[in-house]
Amino acid sequence: MNTMKKSVDLLILHASELITLQGFSEKPAIGEEMKKLQIIKDGAVAIENGRIVDVGKSSEMTEKYTAEEIILAKNKVVLPSFIDSHTHLIFAGSREEELTLKLEGVGYLEILKRGGGILKTVRETRKASIDDLVKEGKIRLDTMLKHGVTTVEAKSGYGLNVEDEIKMLEAYKKLDEQHVVDVIPTLLAAHAIPEEYKDDPDSYVNIIIEEIIPKVAERKLAKFNDVFVEKNVFTIEQGRRILLAGKEYGLIPKIHADEIHCLGGAELAAEVGAISADHLARASDNGIKMLAEKGVIGVLLPTAPMVLMDYTFPDARKMIKTGVPIAIASDFNPNCWVENLQVPMFMATYFLKMTPAEVITAVTINAAHAIGLAHEIGSISVGKKADIVILDIPTHYWLNYKFGVNLVNIVIKNGRIVVEEGKIKE
Ligand SMILES: [Zn+2]
Questions:
Q1: Cα of 179 to ligand 1 centre, how many Å?
Q2: Is 314 exposed, middle or buried (0-12, 13-18, 19+ CB in 10 A)?
Q3: Gyration radius (Cα) of the chain, Å
Q4: Matching CATH topology for 6-81+378-424 and 83-370?
Q5: What class is the 6-81+378-424 domain?
Q6: CA of residue 267 to ligand 1 center, whole Å
Q7: Quick one: which of 84, 209, 276, 309 is 20 to 30 A from 387 by CA?
Q8: 83-370 domain in CATH 3.20.20.140?
């Protein structure tokens, strides 16, 4: 054939498996669908102006396209790059001394009572400048990117007052502008009761509702509004008030639900129309049923029970069977310093009994749904952003079978190669 080939910016050819995950952009994958990766063997992708313009078999795509830059992905798996849909990305300081306390049997809520945990990070974050926070954030995003993540949801929650919650969200805005990884901001003013309100938590709830939410919404600093509903933190009733108040201002609800105690967080997520309910280690059967009925994404964080050392993992099998769309995320925070999403991914297989295919769905298209971006990212579909990762494994069955090393060979963000051979390209 001698017809003119169309020239594109970038062509990926001969992927042993091209995992497209097409068909779930409108609605997340549930139940058996979570195993349907929509694989093209010897697959190819054409990229132009940062977007995916064609997808198909290499034999057909080489007839149609030529490109200045061609990646040969022989013996490699090509899939949508990873989305970390639950992180507490920026904070000041660190809490390595708490690891020893935990090993001595001191629980998370006890550490919090002693003024440690979140409250220690709050004291340090209040002292930090926006630039300090951005600087730390960049280092973390670089590592996340090297491990295949190109979009990160990131929560505030270490300011716990008007000024410092806004400072954190301003830092996320700067970080998003300055770093190739997309940062999707969530207001989590309801992360803990600040020390100065420990005897009057309702007054702090009022500040969140009357001051923080309106100011954050007015300055468009957050897309989501999140609450940590937990014993000694925020009650169901306080959570409901905060989430409904946020909704009035266009902030989409998310919940830290049923992590350490079963308080009905999953039920609340379904009731208020949350986009996701996160953690769910102790969600009730009724809560799980309600999440499935309302299509709320269950964002599961397998590192959390591990760092809490209570080892009660969410029942992913039951949730998948019931029809809850599942995402897997890192829960990166000062109590869980994991910058490599492949760690929770392999934990999801060994502790939540999720297959490699289900895990892939949970960190791509379903994670995109958890942050309201499934129309833009999460699958290799024509028109979507060319956010793609190439893994150095011959089939997706090797994911989580081979673990403990970075499987990433190449990361493409907005159609540009940004990581190659484990290094960030300048
Ligand atoms: Zn969290």
A1: 22
A2: buried
A3: 21
A4: no
A5: mainly beta
A6: 18
A7: 276
A8: yes
